[in-house]
Automatic annotation (TrEMBL):
Pfam families: HATPase_c, HisKA, PAS_3, Response_reg. Gene3D superfamilies: 1.10.287.130, 2.10.70.100, 3.40.50.2300, Histidine kinase-like ATPase, C-terminal domain, PAS domain. Its EC number is 2.7.13.3. It is an enzyme of class 2 (transferase). InterPro entries: CheY-like_superfamily (IPR011006), HATPase_C_sf (IPR036890), HATPase_dom (IPR003594), His_kinase_dom (IPR005467), HisK_dim/P_dom (IPR003661), HisK_dim/P_sf (IPR036097), PAC (IPR001610), PAS (IPR000014). The keyword Coiled coil applies. It catalyses: ATP + protein L-histidine = ADP + protein N-phospho-L-histidine. This is histidine kinase. Residues 198-250 form the PAC domain. Residues 302-521 form the Histidine kinase domain. Residues 266-293 form a coiled coil. The lineage of its organism: Bacteria, Pseudomonadati, Pseudomonadota, Alphaproteobacteria, Hyphomicrobiales. Keywords: Coiled coil, Phosphoprotein.
Length: 654
């Protein structure tokens, strides 16, 4: 399964072999729970603890009782030991396994990226240290909590101390010339109190009695709550400069320029030091956020796909059952209620699939100006009379590469969100304009885009809320008044179209949502002439081979086909299907699921086409994009599908 997913794997028979094979080139380790039950895990624990700071190797454990502590107490102990661990309960679905494996691969790649960033920071620190030593600048830090003074070797040399000598803040105060001590301490206190730059020149008396002049500059570092933490700065021995100024007054101008240059160097050096710290924190925070969203997306997509399969069986059976209760009003009402509830569930899974970027898109050139203009009436009805929809459409816009139906749904979601944020009424502006992305930043590639903006005058969002706005199920609305999937659906759609959703908001200032969509390389096709006769959804009885590993879905689909008058043969794997065909069984058409253990629907289609090149084939799947290498020319039927949709596909094929 890993090889089919494009993951190179090496099998080892013992835990010792696993530990000896671990290294930075390993993306993740896959083990069974049984391997770890009686094994000595001390060496593995020591290896995990000895990982570099950037590394957190993912472990995948195949368990027979689930990963939760309530069902498998051993899982809790393994979680503490391994740290970054995912549990997969056997038997498992191949799709779930591959999804977890790929998620671990992506997480490991981000660790590699973090390693590179850390190495860049360390290299910057090394270059900074070289620059400090070359400029004879002594770096130091003064911790305000415990008065701990930390100094570089160059700084100690400036104060006449050896590298091995103990040098405390009290030692420094004792060295300051008695005439300069009060001014020096006052400058320190003023910087701590006001946050202003600490800059002073004072004299020191070394242990050998020599007097030296020291120039010191520093800035106050604060914690996240704004509390002063430490002074970070540099010192330079300027004795020679001071003596030169006293001896050679005629060089006054030259010396002033030197002071200015030295000051600039100190400022740049200090800013670089403050940047060993902020750059690393930003990189770590971005890595954590990206890993969290990636894991949420994988989990959401997998759950939605499995739920889609369940809804397929529910909707199909309800549709057939409705035909058998004609004349029974109460039974028909109950079935209609259940059918509507299942349809709402299907709509919910579509939003989940949109967030996970697995929805099935019909992408082509779309005229956004025409689309928005045609929706203006619907948008106005959706927000009510207390809110005005102000649509701004330029005279000419290039077509975009998108799915028109999904763009309509995204626009409606954005407008409804804007309406809910404007309890006192007002205006919502829907704007279209062209934009150029000059370089790749964030998730947006450089290129030409059309931007669809929805701007409201609502309550707005603070920075914390704005950061969580696109997460699935996050909502600021009252309980029962929102699923929390609107913005996450739009975000997933934007990424699937290789665009981006950008949000800007502030409390009391309203919210601006921008959907960036790439411009299409082809024009919008002209509408074809209406056909002389409508396409019929009926066809003559056929003998159909139905392949699906899920018995519930196979039974529901077979019942719908039988109800349409066709003869159906059900099998539950690609191998069974080929056995029937090779045994001489003749069929007019084959319908197959894609995700099946042993042999995928894509592999089955290729095998059948090799035997029967002209046989019509329908691929039924809940996935938006099939994996690479499955580019096959067959009819697609998205799950869950109705009997009418099934009949229409058969009619077109036959």
């Amino acid at each position: 399964m890993l090889q089919e997913a494009g993951v190179e794997a090496r099998i080892v028979p013992r835990l010792d072999d696993l530990i000896s094979g671990l290294g930075e080139d390993v993306a993740f380790a896959l083990m069974t729970e049984e391997t770890l039950r009686s094994a000595d895990l001390r060496l593995l624990s020591e290896w995990i603890k000895a990982q570099p700071s950037w590394s957190d190797l993912p472990f995948i454990i195949l368990t027979a009782r689930g990963g939760g502590p309530e069902r498998n107490p051993a899982a809790g102990r393994l979680s503490e030991l391994l740290g970054n661990v995912s549990f997969i309960e056997r038997p498992f679905h191949a799709t779930t396994f591959v999804s977890v494996a790929r998620s671990s691969m992506r997480g490991r790649r981000r660790q590699y990226e973090a390693r590179n960033r850390i190495e860049e920071v360390r290299e910057g620190q090394r270059r900074l240290q070289v620059a400090l030593e070359a400029g004879r600048l002594g770096a130091w830090e003064f911790n305000l909590a415990d008065n701990m003074l930390t100094t570089s070797q160059t700084c100690r040399e400036i104060f006449g101390r050896a590298a091995t000598d103990n040098f405390t803040y009290e030692d420094l105060l004792h060295m300051v010339h008695s005439e300069d001590l009060e001014a020096m301490q006052a400058a320190v206190g003023h910087s701590i109190e006001t946050g202003s730059e600490y800059a002073i020149t004072y004299r020191i008396v070394r242990s050998d009695g020599s007097i030296r002049a020291v120039e010191t500059r520093a800035q106050l570092d604060r914690d996240r709550d704004g509390r002063p933490v430490k002074l970070v700065g540099v010192s330079a021995d300027i004795t020679d400069r001071m003596q030169a100024e006293a001896q050679q007054r005629h060089l006054h101008v030259m010396l002033e320029e030197r002071v200015v240059e030295r000051t600039r160097e100190l400022e740049e050096t200090h800013q670089q030091m403050l940047a060993e710290v902020s750059q690393r924190e930003r990189a770590e925070e971005q890595l954590r956020q990206a890993q969290k969203m990636e894991m949420i997306g994988q989990l959401t997509g997998g759950v939605a796909h499995d739920f889609n399969n369940l809804l397929m069986a529910v909707l199909g059976n309800l549709e057939l059952l409705r035909k058998h209760v004609q004349g029974d009003a109460r039974a028909a009402r109950l079935i209609d209620g259940a059918y509507q509830g299942a349809q709402r569930g299907a709509s919910l899974t579509q939003r989940l699939l949109a967030f996970a970027r697995r929805q099935d898109l019909q992408v082509g050139p779309v005229n956004l100006g025409t689309l928005v203009a045609d929706m203006q009436g619907l948008l106005q009805q959706s927000v009510g009379s207390a809110i005005v929809i102000d649509v701004q459409i330029p005279g000419h816009l290039p077509p975009v590469l998108a799915d028109a139906n999904q763009i309509e749904l995204a626009l409606l979601n954005l407008v409804v969100n804007a309406r809910d944020a404007m309890q006192n009424g007002g205006a919502i502006r829907v704007d279209l304009h062209e934009a150029e992305q000059p370089s790749s930043t964030g998730g947006l590639a450089c290129g030409h885009y059309v931007v669809l903006s929805v701007i409201d005058q609502g309550v707005g969002m603070d920075a914390e809320t704005l950061q969580k706005a696109i997460e699935p199920f996050f909502s600021t609305k009252e309980l029962g008044k929102g699923t929390g999937l609107g913005l996450s659906m739009v975000h997933g759609l934007a990424l699937q179209l290789e665009g981006e959703l950008k949000l800007a908001s502030a409390p009391g200032k309203g919210t601006t949502a921008q959907l960036w969509i790439p411009v299409s390389a082809t024009d919008v096709p002209q509408p074809e002439q209406a056909a002389a006769a409508e396409t019929t959804t009926t066809s003559a009885p056929r003998r159909i081979l139905l392949v699906d590993d899920d018995a519930l879905i196979a039974m529901s689909s077979a019942d719908m086909l039988t109800d349409l008058g066709h003869e159906v043969m059900e099998v539950y794997s690609g191998k069974e299907a080929l056995t029937l065909l090779d045994g001489g069984e003749a069929f007019d058409l084959m319908i197959t699921d894609y995700s099946m253990p042993g042999m995928t629907g894509g592999e089955l289609v290729k095998a059948v086409r090799a035997r029967f090149p002209t046989m019509p084939i329908v691929m039924a799947s809940g996935y938006a994009d099939l994996p690479p290498g499955t580019e096959i020319d067959v009819a697609r039927l998205g799950k869950p599908y109705s009997q009418e949709q099934l009949a229409l596909v058969l009619s077109k094929l036959m």
